[in-house]
Design a protein that fits this description.
The structure holds two protein chains of two kinds. By secondary structure, chain A is of the alpha+beta class. Chain A is built from five helices and ten strands, in the order H-H-E-E-H-E-E-H-E-E-H-E-E-E-E. Chain B is built from 13 helices and six strands. In chain B, strands 1-4 form a two-stranded antiparallel sheet.
Chain lengths: 169, 361
């Protein structure tokens, strides 16, 4: 509970115009939860991502400007959480998907297979930096980057949860 | 156009005693356009039945559920106003006003989390608040259950719906939720257009194009209104929470109250635009009296704040650096499109009207 008050208090400072330091503080406190069909549910902060295997990609935004995003591959995060990746991605596990949910409620899915390097060369990752800096307010601190996708509709902003689930239909 | 969810047989049940109503029983068939999709929310513990919807409708219009026997759900959710009440804030039994604007009940079948801040995970859970809050209907569920247990035809009806004549708060909100899930609005001119049976007038078509086009098309010189990001698709809403730039210092924390996360400050759930011309005043605090004011807001008056929606931060660059700055004609066209969303079938549907009022021919 204390932490919640801390975040709310931080917000008032933001309003007062002391935005940079506190935005950074809020970003440091923000987390992504990895949950669902995983053996080890995780709660990851920016500091945790810094210690993991990182990748970067140069992509163009809608305005045509080039940016370098960096972060951690979803496959790496899912493996660390004990999701059925790699040699375990077979049989009924082929019906699993990852639901990525944003703070505003927007959600997108990836199949586990399309995130796994033994299936696909796509390198979808959870970015926490753009051009060497934290992501801007409203778009971060975490964002999915899926290089090679023509529309950025799955480059979901403000990622809060990664949920692995079975498609049950 | 419609799809039947449940094929079913029904039977007529006559009351136990003279005066008990004759009601149909059996699974309730929800009918809605296929393009609304089936991402609907019905708890496994509360499947819709004809008898449940019948009871729920009576309860929705039942003033005995309020502390002064005068206010029902329908006091603030009036069918003719697409189940809103025309006020910024609504008076309760003690004449105190609610803190947020009464929301439309149209198409809540597709909404997972209710209230402006999404704090209720089901319509059953949601109904408890207005029924019991001291400044709203103000009667405990226990007191309401007791009252109904001495009021015909409720003991009979609860037995028909739930298998015994026990009346409880849980059963009251279940029946109300069943009725609310039937409040489907899908016959506006926009729906008819999507079904291929209505040809929009030129200003409606232009408004629709503006509504659906991106607000930012770099280098193209084109300006859209970008409304569809949040209000796009056949249902005209997505269940998302955004701070839509009403204030630089939002007073109402909105979604933040639920999550405790600073980025959610001043974020509210976006409602459907179905029947939007009937549901003034607008926004969570009812601050805008007309749709013209709403359009002006999105066009020119977005206020910057730390949690302002990222979708509203990059409106086309111009003199002020913010705002869509739609033309007068563009605004008028969008208004024409919004008026296309009025569903007169819905607001006149006898299935949704007050059952306590006897029809006089």
């Amino acid at each position: 509970m204390m932490r919640l008050y801390g975040v709310a208090g931080c917000f008032f400072f933001l309003l007062a115009g002391l935005s940079t330091a506190n935005a950074q503080q809020a970003a440091e406190q923000a987390t992504v939860s990895v949950q669902g069909e995983v053996q080890h549910p995780l709660t990851l902060a920016v500091a945790d991502l810094a210690k993991m295997k990182r990748v970067e990609a140069t992509v163009k935004d809608r305005a045509g400007d080039t940016h370098v995003y960096s972060g951690v591959p979803l496959a790496e995060i899912l493996s660390q959480a004990g999701a059925t990746m790699g040699k375990d991605l077979r049989g009924e596990n082929m019906t699993k998907y990852l639901l990525v949910k944003s703070g505003d409620g927007y959600s997108v899915v990836f199949s586990l297979a399309e995130l796994d390097s033994s299936f696909s060369d796509k390198l979808v990752f959870l970015a926490d930096q753009v051009d060497g800096k934290p992501l801007p307010q409203g778009r971060g601190p975490f964002r999915i980057i899926a290089p090679g996708e023509k529309k950025p509709a799955r480059w979901i902003w403000e990622v809060r949860t990664l949920t692995v689930a079975f498609a049950k239909e | 156009m419609g799809m039947a969810l449940v094929a079913c047989a029904w039977v007529m049940i006559a009351g136990d005693r003279p005066g008990d109503p004759v009601i149909e029983k059996g699974p309730y068939t929800l009918v809605y356009p296929a393009n609304f999709g089936n991402r609907i929310y019905i708890p496994a513990t509360n499947p819709l039945t004809k008898e449940g919807v019948y009871l729920g409708r009576l309860l929705f219009y039942e003033p005995l559920l309020s502390a002064n026997d005068k206010i029902s759900c329908a006091s603030c959710h009036q069918q003719k106003k697409a189940f809103t009440d025309g006020r910024s804030f609504s008076p309760g039994v003690d004449q105190s006003l609610t803190t947020r604007n009464a929301m439309t009940l149209a198409n809540l079948l597709w909404v997972k989390n209710l209230f402006w801040d999404g704090r209720a995970a089901s319509l059953e859970e949601q109904a408890v608040t207005p029924l019991t809050a001291p400044h709203e209907m103000g009667r405990s569920l226990e007191a309401s259950a007791h009252k109904l247990s001495h009021t015909a035809p409720y003991p009979f009806l609860f037995k028909e719906v739930f298998g015994s004549d026990t009346i409880s708060g849980e059963r009251i909100v279940k029946a109300i939720a069943q009725f609310e899930r039937t409040l489907i609005s899908a016959n506006s001119r926009y729906d008819q257009y999507l079904q291929g049976s209505y040809q929009p007038r030129p200003e409606e078509a232009a408004g629709m194009a503006l509504f659906n086009s991106e607000s930012q098309l770099p280098g193209s010189g084109r300006r859209g209104a970008g409304c569809a990001h949040c209000h796009g698709g056949p249902k005209t809403f997505n269940e998302l929470y955004h701070n839509n730039g009403l204030d630089s210092l939002p007073k109402d924390p909105g979604r933040e109250t639920v999550t405790g996360i600073a980025a959610d400050w001043g974020r509210f759930r976006m409602p459907t635009l179905r029947n939007i011309a009937l549901t003034a005043p607008y926004m969570h605090d009812g601050r805008f009296k007309t749709l013209e004011e709403v359009i002006d807001h999105y066009s020119e008056h977005i206020e910057q704040s730390p949690s302002l929606s990222a979708l509203l931060q990059n409106t086309p660059k111009d003199i002020t650096g913010r705002g869509l700055h739609l033309t007068a004609a563009g605004k008028k066209n969008i208004l024409s499109f919004l008026n296309m969303l009025t569903d007169s079938t819905f607001i006149n549907d006898p299935r949704f009207s007050d059952p306590h009022i006897k029809q006089v021919n």
